[in-house]
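hiii, so i know i said id send this last week but things got crazy w the move. better late than never?? heres the sequnce for the chain we talked about at the cafe, plus the structure i predicted for it. fair warning i was half asleep when i ran it
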Amino acid sequence: MQADEKQLPINDLSGEGAEGDRQQGQLSWIEGLIDSKHWPSLRILFTGNLLLPILILGGSMLASLLTVLLMLVQQQGYASLQLVLSLSILLALFSLILVLIRLRSQLLRPLASLEQTVNQVCQGEPVASKKHEQTGVLSSMARDIDSLSEELTDIYEDMEVRVARQTSRLAQKTTSLQVLYDVAAGINQSENLDELLLEYMGVFKRMVDARSATVHLVLPDDRVRQVGCIDLEGRLYNEQEMLPIKLCQCGIALSPGDILCSQDARICARRNNRTMFSADQVERVSVPMWYHGDVLGFYHLYVDKPGIYDGREDVLDILNTIGSHLGMAVAKQRSDSEARRLSIVEERTSLAHELHDSLAQTLASLRFQVRMLEETLQSDAISEKALHEAQRIHNGLDEAHDELRELIYSFRAPIDQRGLVPALSKLVERFNQETGIPAFFQPDCIKTDLNPNQEMQALRIVQEALANIRKHAKAHTIRVLLRCRSPGSYLILVEDDGVGFEGAVPQGNPGEHIGLSIMEERARRVGGELSIESEPGEGTRVELVIRSEKSEASLQR
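okay and structure toks below
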């Protein structure tokens, strides 16, 4: 192809296209000669159509020189020699003019153009590809410069993309490190764990540009509690604002284990006017909250595919590191809660020891003295009234001693470490064994989120209600119900089918008024509401409504 491009100018210049076969052979021989690496100058002259004019110019000058020499040697024939000399001079002038024109068009202009192009390339400016016919003898050099310019342009573009990518990663890493620092600082400052987890759920969502996110806690009994979520519109929902699963269509299908609907998910999307994503559109990124090898919770981030698993290990490392710090926060909150519970237990155990060593010993001594008094009165001639009063004192001391022992046992047997539900179950079972009265415990939930003090006070209120039933109700059946009405709100009901009473409080022993007052005081102390309903012959209902601290804080906001 290169040989064809070199032949066209020579054919045009010679004007002998009709004798193509003979000239083609001659040109091929010339091309073979000048294509040699030993004759680069001839190749340039041949490519620029300068070789033939220069040969003609040289031949004309040689002919003129020979003519002049012949004129000097010969004395005759000047006319013919002058004609030859004139033709040689004219041909030389024509060849010179042609050489100058070709030099200007084939060498000087292309050199100026290439110089401009090289300057643009050196300055990093994009250059337009020039036609090779316009670059004359420098066409091969022009092609090389064009190739170099294209490669430099590609390198610049690739470099810009890489710099932009690295800048974005550095900015994201800086943001992630700032988030990591904030997490480390916030662990010791935040008092509400749920608020901390919800705050960093939004941070995680922004870090990976997720569509939505959820945060879950793994409870000590291995149940999973959803703390909150961010929907597709970016709205934040905490636990109290989310729909309980049993109230939605999915919950109806999940609870009994039956298939509610076997239609395509797109039908559900149209019916509910909500976007449904397939597995090839969105993927879930899990960020665990670790502490000492245990998973205390996790975040779920829903991102568009291809997601962050491909080439984004740095982001995953930052997310996992933040997750481990949040795991430390969860462990710290649970440790603090357990420390408060143990502090209450220790305080009550100490009080039980004090009661046993002081008041219990005094009552035991009084019982012994009253028994001695009864024996003395029976041996002497004392009226029946005095004996009856002594018996009443003895019975009162026995009852006070039993109540004190019950109180000491309650102090020494603190609330079950697993929470309020197991403690109530154990309390009802013990009441059934001691009294023989059928008692049933019906919990509506397995776990509560009440703090240790709230659980302790609720348990004592139920203990006092059962003690009153044992002393006065003459009941045949007792039921203790724990109902989880909404997240963070609980109803505890103690009811019997005993004799009941009329009025706000039962009449009789003034000590009963004190017992009910103590129950009401316990309820107020933990922010609960206590109500007592009773009718003669219809039994008694004691209701306690109590809310967790998290629920109270949410209602106040």
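btw The radius of gyration is 52 Å. thought thatd interest u
miss u guys!!
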